[in-house]
Amino acid sequence: MHRGLSHLVCFLMLAVAACAAHALPRDSDNISQLVFSYKHRCALRNNGSVDCVSESPYLGESRGGDGEITYRPVQMVPRGATRLTAGEFAICAIVDDALDCWKDVPATGKKLAPPQQIIASHVTDIAVGDDHACAVANGAALCWGSDSAGKVGHHEDDYHNGTVQTKPWPVIASGVTRVAAGGDVSCAVAQAALWCWGYTGLASDANSKALWDGDHPPLRVFERGVTTVAAGSHHVCAIVSGTLWCWGDNTHGQVGIGISVDHAQHSPSFQTAGVAGTFMDGDQTCHRQWTQLTCTVEHPVKVIDHGVTAVFASANETCAQANGSLQCWGANWQGQLGIAPAKKDVLKATVAIAGEVNFVALDSTRVCAVMQGGVLSCTLPCKKDVNTCPDHPGFVADDPNDMSGVEMRGGVWRGTIGNAEVMVCLQAEQPFSQSSYYYLRHGFSIPLDFADNSGAILNEASSNGREFDYSKPTAVWTLQPAAGRRMDGIWKTADGSRTLPIHLVRVMSLDTGNGASCDSTVPNDPSRLAFNAPRVASQKLSITQMPGGLRRIGALDGHVSMTELPASVPNADNFNHAMRAWLAEEIAGYYDCALSNGGSADFNESYDISFLSPPWLVARESYSVYCGGAHPSGGTAGYSIWNLETGKTVDPWDFLKDSKWDYVKEVDHCDNANNCSRRPPPKLNEILTARFNEDNAGTGDCSDSLDSGISPGYLLHMDKNGLIFSTDFPHVIQACDEDIALPWKTVAPFLTPLGKTVMQSLTHKAPQHGH
C-alpha cells in the first residue's frame, strides 16, 4: 500500500473510532406516561426520567420565527418523576414530591434550560390547561396562570377578570386529591365531592351564562363518591362510584350522550329556529348563528353507567377505561379516535381498544395508549386533507409521529444486500432524503428517503434526469428495529419481482451533538468520513515527486489532487493531515456530484501550495465543477495560510486593522447566520478600487463593479512582495475577477502588529520555494 494511502486510511479509522467512543447510549426504558403540548411530545419512563421531542406538525416544518427543532429526545428530568401532564400553558412533572414545569425544549445540540420549580414539596397531582394550571399540594388545590372566566379562582373584591396570576393561588384549602384544568374551567375532587370554578357550563351555576368577574366561590357539582375528573377545552367528565358523568360543549359529541351538531341540524327545532336563535334538542341547548351551530349540555349526564376506572379529555375528544376496554367519543374528523367511520363525530362511547391500557394521551390529531409493557398503540392521523382519512383508521403499533424509529436506525452502517457489500448512511434529522447508500463494487451513491417517522420503510429513489422521485421508488426497504449494533431487513423492487435480505452492522452511532450526515459540508465530519471510508480506501492514488521534496497525490484519475510537504519541513504532519482529510472529503464530493449528474461527474478539485517561505505557507484550493444545473462553476475556492512554526492556520484578515464588517449596516455581506465577510478598512478599499481598472481579459473597466452594490468578498493571501486581494464576484460577472497585488510599502500603514511581523519575515528572507 502506498504510504499516502496508508496515512489516509489510518486517519479515517482514527476519526471513526473517536466519534464512536463519544456516542451516547440510548435510554430504552419503557414508557409509563405520554403527553402532548402544542409543540412537543414528552414521555415519562419507568425509571423516572422524562424526555421530550418536537411534536407534529412542527417536526420538519416551519414553526414561525424560531425554527428550533428538537429532533432527538432531550432529557428534561433525569430521575424521580412520578406524574407527567401537559397543555398549551406548560409541561409539568411531579419530581421527588416537587412540581417542575417548562415551556420550551432546547433544539438538538443546544444547551438545556432547566425546568422551573413551581412548588417545592408535597405535590400529589397536577393538571395543565390552555393557559393555566392547577396542582394539589399539602391537600390544597392551587392554580395559576390566566384568570379569564375566574378559572384560577383569585376572587378578591378588587380583582379584575382576565388578570394573570403568576404564583399558585389556593382555591380549596384542604382535602383535595385530584384536579383538572381545561380551556376556561377548573375542577377539584375534595373529600370525594366535585367542585368546579371558572366557566363551568352548568345551568345551576349563575356564572355559567356570563363570565365570572366577581367574588364567587367554587360550585359543588357532586356531593360524594367522586374519584377523578378530566376537562377538555369546554367540557368536563367525572367518575362517580364507577359511573361516568359529563357535561359542557357537545358540538362534536364530546359529552358522549349521542347528540351533536349533526343530530341537531336535523331536529324540528333547528328547522324552525330561523337564521339565529337558541333551541332545545334533547338534553342539550343549541345556538344557531347563520351557518354556525353550537350545542351545550348544561347538566351532568350519564355516559357509562358502571365499571369506569379512568377518564381522559382533550380539546373535543374524550376517552375512558371501562369494563376492560378503552372507549372514546367526540371529534373524529381526522380519524384521531381510531374509530370507524372517520370523517364524522363519534356521538357515544365506542370501543377503541378491546383491552386494558395503562395510560392514554390524546389531542386533536390522535390518541396514544400506553399498553402493557410500556408499548405505545396510536391512531394514525390525517395530516393534510380530512377527506383522505381512511374509513377504518384504527390503531397502529407504536406512535406514528414518534421519531424514535428513525433515531434508532439513524447512523452509518456496513453490510450486505443479498451478497453485495454496501455502505448505508441513514439521516436521522430532516431532510431524511439526504440518506443514501452505495455498493462497494462501484461507489456511486443511491438516494434513500424514510417513508414515515416509524423508520421502518425507506424508498429508494428512481432517477428522472437529475431529479430523484421518492414517490415512485425503484425499490423499497423494510427494516426491523435495530438490535444492538445489528439491523436486518428486506430489499424489494417496486414491482415485487425481486427480494433480497438486508444485513447491516452499525459503524457509527449518533450522539446529541453529531448526527449522521451523508452530504455534510462540515470539514472532517466523522459521520461523512465513516460513510465514505471504504470508497476512499479503494482509490488508486497517483504520487508524483516535485521539486523541493513536495509530492502531488491524486485520486480518481486526477479529478482530485493535493500537495504534501516533505517531512523535513517543521510541522509538516499537521499540514499533510489537513490535506489528506480534504482529499477524503473531495473523493466523497466526486461521488455526490456524479449522483446529481446521472452517474458521471465533471469534477476537478485541487489543493496546491502556491507560496512557501517558512514559516509561512499559502495553499490555494481550485475547482472546476459541473454537477447539473444551469451553469458550471469554477475558480478559486479559497486560500489557507499556515504558520509552520506553530503548525496552525492563521486568518490573513488579522494582518489588517479595522477589517471587521458591521453586519447591521451591511447585511448584504452576511449569510443567514450573520457570518459576515471581512473587508479592508475604508482608506485601503479606496486604493484597491483605484487599482481595479480592467477585467482579466483586458477588455474593459471593472471599477464600476466595485460600486455596483455587488461588492466582492476578497480572498486575501500574500507572497514575498505584499498582500494579494483576489476578487470573488458572483459567477454572472466573473469576467471581472482579478488578483490585485499591493506591495508591503502600500499596505504597511494598515497592518496590525501580526501583519508587520509577517511583512518583516518575508521582506528580509528570500523564499525557498515558489510555485
UniProtKB/TrEMBL annotation:
The keyword Signal applies. Transmembrane segments: none annotated. PROSITE patterns: PROKAR_LIPOPROTEIN (PS51257), RCC1_3 (PS50012). The keyword Ion transport does not apply. Pfam families: RCC1_2. Residues 1-23 form the signal peptide. Keywords: Signal. PANTHER family: REGULATOR OF CHROMOSOME CONDENSATION. This is Regulator of chromosome condensation (RCC1) repeat-containing protein.
